[in-house]
Amino acid sequence: MPDVSEGRHDEVLSFDLTVQPWLPVQRVDGREDCLSLTELFRQASRVRRLVGEVPTQEFALLRMLLAIAHDAVEGPADIDEWAELWDEPERLVEAVVLYLGVHGDRFDLLHPDAPFFQVAGLRTERDEVAPLNRIIADVPNGEPFFTRMPNVDRLGYAEAARWVVHAHAYDTSGIKTGTVGDPRVNKGKVYPLGLGWAGNLGGVVVEGANLLQTLLLNLIATEDSPVKAGDSDAPAWRREPCGPGPGPEKELAARPDGVRDLYTWQTRRLRLCFDADGVTGVVLGYGDPLAAHNMHTAEPMSGWRRSPTQEKKLRTSPVYMPREHVPARSAWRGIAALLADQVPEGAGGQEPAAGLRPGIVQWVARLSTEGALPRRFLIRARVVGAVYGTQQSVIDEIVDDSVAMGVVLLHEQDPRYAMTAIDAVRDAEAAVWALGDLAMDLTSAVGGESEAGKDQALETGYAALDDLYRQWLLQLADGEDPARRREEWQDLVHRRIAGLGQDLVRAAGRRAWEGRIVATAEGSRWLNASLCELRFKARLNKALPQRSSRGPADGEEPHVPAQRAAATDVPDPCEVPS
Question: Fewer Cβ in 10 A, N or C end of the chain?
Fold first, then answer.
């Protein structure tokens, strides 16, 4: 545990986040370290990324760092000003170091009057203090050993500070003990008011080669911004300290004023209980509520989906809700939602988009289009999100994945690369579904439930293409002819999925090779492993029509004869040719 210095008040403990190490990082050479806020910005070019206890903690901390950077440079105002910072990043570092020196008082975790991200004197009617598990995200739910030992009695100040930031971003919903002075208290309780703000999001961050690049890439200019920004935009530490209840209703209705306000939104009211050796408990209640619908004009770090359900409920249209991440789906399979808005076909631009890409991706696309970033500059789109269960009262899973690409894929005036990347995912999905259909056919050939084995085949197929697509996408920006690259992709997919299909056929067993009569929409047909394989090859070729090396099984699905094959035609499963 770092030393706790004597604060600005006699014999009052202090933990100044601007000078005390509390942010775990991975350096570009792979070493891990723990830095203060000032050290982190000074060494950002030598730091690869933040390393929190959980990925959602990293996301929350990064947003706090961005709020500091935005406030320190009071912008940037436009792309030209951003480009100056990109060319001379030391200007950002110098501005932040000076800024932290000016506002250091508000970054004291233990300050008696304005503790960082807390409410001084916050208490319940009975002076109850909750255990520290209340702000620690144990993932998966019910398995605390994955994060730490259960029943945490004490935390060091550094880790406690990280969980304070995380609580405002990802705290669960549910009934909370009321605090003195909160008008929402009913019989000692405050009933569910929703998640911490970031818990609603399918978080998206654009990463560079080091933390300094990552901060700059996510530093959206005010005037050229895909999200709104007001003149009164300010982070929490430049506003009056919160009281135990929500802020004034009229004031909250006009906020957030911009990303500085939003990234540090005080969704909770909390106070750490501590002594000279560390933090021993927490008082936790609800803070300022924030509705998620139609926040796409304010929140850049999430994709958005149109919600017919919310449109009916709110009686307005369109209504966009954050697009949450699906734990079982790799980031590359959702690349369409990252690269382009989902515009309904044949609507002629009259119908609102069914989905909107994240504002942060739109911002980097603007940088690419305006030439502020070279077209072959590599970025990593990282997706982070929490999946909640049991009425949002627990965190069941955390999503953390990424996909690397050249910024040319985001170029708004040359959509060929983006469309090729999106079409390549569709190619992969069509090929994997052909594999799933093969698994169904083989099961049907032995008299099993036709759906049995399909899910496993789909999972195997997508897993087999995971690294393949990521590597192909990373090299896509290097090619001058995206159409040619798609042909190469279809070749790769065909070889990989065809091999998996052969594995399924080999493993089918004697009963599948003997086959049986099955009922289809066209009537009864004979089906065995050999015919299943022929159908699979036809489907696979149909799914991948642009591959450069055509196979012998091109064309429509072959006719499956209704009569039973002669017994002499049934091969020995031990002698199936490879």
Answer: C
Closest to 65 measured CA to CA, from 260, 206, 230: 260
Let me know if 144 is exposed, middle or buried by CB neighbors in 10 A (0-12, 13-18, 19+).
middle
Q: Which residues pair with 34 in a beta bridge?
A: 24
DSSP 393: T
Closest C-alpha to 212, from 64, 50, 374, 75: 50
Q: What is the dihedral sign for C-alpha 444, 447, 453, 457? A: negative
DSSP 19-53: TS--EEEEETTS-EEEE-HHHHHHTGGGEEEE--S
- Contacts (Cβ under 8 Å, ≥6 apart) of 262: 197, 256, 298, 299
CA distance 64 to 53: 16
DSSP 274-332: EETTEEEEEEEEE------TT-TTT--SB-EEE-HHHHHHHT-S--EEE-PPPTTS-GG
What values do phi and psi take at 321, rounded to 5?
A: -120, 155
Q: Are 153 and 280 in contact (CB under 8 A)?
A: yes
CB atoms within 10 A of CB 277: 11
Global pTM value: 0.89
Helices (H), 51-173: 55-73, 79-87, 90-102, 157-170
Do 91 and 85 touch, CB atoms closer than 8 A? yes
Are residues 517 and 524 in contact, defined by beta-carbon separation less than 8 angstroms?
Answer: yes
Mean pLDDT, contiguous 10-residue spans, the chain (578 residues): 45 92 97 98 98 96 98 95 97 98 96 97 96 84 53 92 98 95 95 97 97 98 86 95 94 94 98 96 97 96 96 95 94 93 70 94 95 93 96 94 94 92 97 96 82 88 97 90 94 97 92 83 83 94 85 42 34 33
